[in-house]
Design a protein that fits this description.
By secondary structure, the protein is α+β, with helices and mostly antiparallel strands. The chain contains four helices and four strands.
């Protein structure tokens, strides 16, 4: 296995030239490790999260690590994974190629997320 490339990324939400929310994290292979979210306006971090998840789906990421569960993250479909299962998922995903997409090419991020989570 060669060296692994890691990078920090942020997703920001802006209104009228003012930063109103966002999140940031670090990617390593096909894993994105979410570090922090913030909002200065209602739902601004939720908008950032939807954009992040859409980019991860489009880019071939296998795992989004949220560090700890909150009702906010649970409402977006986050699930708790037992430690050993997480280690197995991590070992697989960290060696998968993924390239963080800065743009979605005009595709609605909600449509991307909904298509990947649809069960029927």
């Amino acid at each position: 296995m060669g060296p692994r490339l890691s990078q920090a990324h942020s997703i920001e939400t802006w209104r009228g030239g003012e930063l109103v929310g966002g999140l940031y994290g670090v990617r390593l292979g096909g894993v994105f490790f979410g570090e922090s979210m913030f909002s200065r306006e209602r739902d601004a971090s939720k908008v950032a999260l939807v954009h992040l998840v859409a980019r991860l789906i489009q880019s071939g990421f296998r795992l989004l690590d949220c560090q700890f569960m909150t009702e906010h993250l649970r409402s977006f479909g986050a699930v708790e994974v037992p430690r050993e299962a997480f280690r197995a998922l991590l070992a697989d995903a960290i060696d998968q190629p993924a390239t963080f997409q800065r743009e979605l090419g005009g595709v609605d991020p909600c449509a991307i997320v909904q298509a990947s989570t649809r069960t029927s």
